[in-house]
């Protein structure tokens, strides 16, 4: 007698084991399918969750163009600063046809502008005292005129000529949170910020009410902007550039309080209002 005959109840009846196997195959298939669906949904949910914590890339848009220039002046009395530098250079700039409405801005006004933007937490170590110097500000008839200005002022002792243009983040974000880097250290920094520290700052920002978006200005993009604003500086490399988180709020008035909170997070060097 064959195995099939032993499990049969007669020639005209189906062996009892076959329906059982078919039934359990369907059950097993349903279980496997359910597990795969749950795994896919769970994995997809985790992926979306992780994506929600990542900062966004900078918004697409044209880079700003030069609309003026500044001439930073040495302070009289310091070594290598010729007497009467401010008056002499201002008179020279006024003779440049491409320069529009040159104005001498005193050092205390430069310091006041800085204080209006940079966020300080009184409970933390304060930034190093900056050495404020006066500067000359002027407009240009057109972006191409900046080269002519630089050539006219080349070789003049005691000055530094820089292009002036609108900030890339103006109108796009309200707060910048600058992470510690290897070469640019701040009082709160002990080492360069890690990726985990940066992601923790992003996660905290996204938890806060009123935060509309968090952008990441990574080092390559930051270097590109730095070279745009600072001109051709040979020492400017990726090591000298910090990662920056730029935050947009539903209500920009909240930016200062959030910036102060971020100063207390590991890896944050400083924060500044974007105006």
Give a description of the structure.
37% of the residues lie in helices and 19% in strands. It contains eight helices and nine strands. The strands form two sheets. A five-stranded antiparallel β-sheet has the order 3-9-6-8-7. A four-stranded antiparallel β-sheet has the order 2-4-1-5. The longest helix is centred in the first third of the chain and has 37 residues, at 17-53.
Features:
5-stranded antiparallel beta sheet; alpha+beta; 9 strands; 4-stranded antiparallel beta sheet; elongated; 275 residues; disordered N terminus
Shape: elongated
Cα gyration radius (Å): 32 Å
Physical arrangement of strands within the biggest beta sheet: 3-9-6-8-7
**Beta fraction:** 15-25%
State the share of residues found in helices, binned by percent: 25-40%
Mean pLDDT reading: 82
Secondary-structure-derived class = alpha+beta
Distance between the termini: 94 Å
Listing every helix as H and every strand as E from the N terminus to the C terminus, the arrangement reads HHEHEHEEHEEHEHEHE
Report the strand count. Answer: 9
| DSSP summary: helix tally | 8
Write the SSE topology:
Layout: H1 3-6, H2 17-53, E1 68-73, H3 85-94, E2 99-105, H4 107-117, E3 118-119, E4 135-140, H5 146-153, E5 159-164, E6 175-179, H6 195-207, E7 211-217, H7 219-230, E8 244-249, H8 255-262, E9 268-273
Antiparallel strand pairs: 1-4, 1-5, 2-4, 3-9, 6-8, 6-9, 7-8
